[in-house]
Amino acid sequence: MSSAADFAEQQVARVRDDPSGRLDLLRELYEGDAGGAQVHLPFRRAASAFMRWQLRRGLLRPETGPSPGSPWWRAVNERLLRDGWEARVLLGGGGGPASSISVELAVRFIAEPTARNWYRAHNASVVSAYLDNLDLARTETRTERFFMNLVLMRVLYAHALVSAPRLALGRLAPVAPLLGDPRLGMTGVFLSLSRILPDRYPLGDDVETYVAVEHSFGRMLDVGVISPRLKDLYEWSAHELGQPRLAELLLDRTPCYAWPPHDSSPWRPPLSLSARIALRAAPPLRDDPPSMS
Question: Of all residues in the chain, what percent carry a pLDDT higher than 90?
Fold first, then answer.
């Protein structure tokens, strides 16, 4: 009898060079038959937002052909699919223990499908994929690597809105879980990015061009709200996701996944008026340890 991990790998291999098939496989994970029992999991649209953004940019296209996709983004996408399917099979009585902490968290989400458990499962798979594919990330352009870090920073923050609201919004904590609802928080992350990134891959090395056209809300959020609490956010996320190496992807408030820490200027633009207002309205609560909610 094959293990749950083997079955999940077979499922992913079947759609490896079929971008739309990957999306269908994700939908089936959330809304499909599992051993004769129909499964209806919440937050499918939130998970789909991540993949649809990758599809629009052509990141998941086959690696061969006139317009190949991104080996790194394909690997990240496959990790999410494999972890989810392995968890589904395990809960259905499939063989073998969970192959990773991210699969264990996916099992927990399927068994108890709350917003907090969804974020833990989703982000643990994302972080695992980042850490396991660093060499592939280094082959990407400067702009792609900047947005890899930006995506990571924003999805970690969306999770904190739900699970660590005081860390995420300080004295405005009571509204944080609503803002971080996966149906709003995650879709907002990729809707925001879609407004500034063209639907093509790869991008060039002109990071500053894309940063300059970022709409005001996104930059206000990044600079005025997230950046001042990045150290606490990464430390809290590392603990929450069982991924201690995640904390190493930040150095002196500069996200440094496949990114040189000395290249900090794109991460520290001048504070706009809206960013100053946001920082004043929701300053970090320095007396709170990172693990506090």
Answer: 69
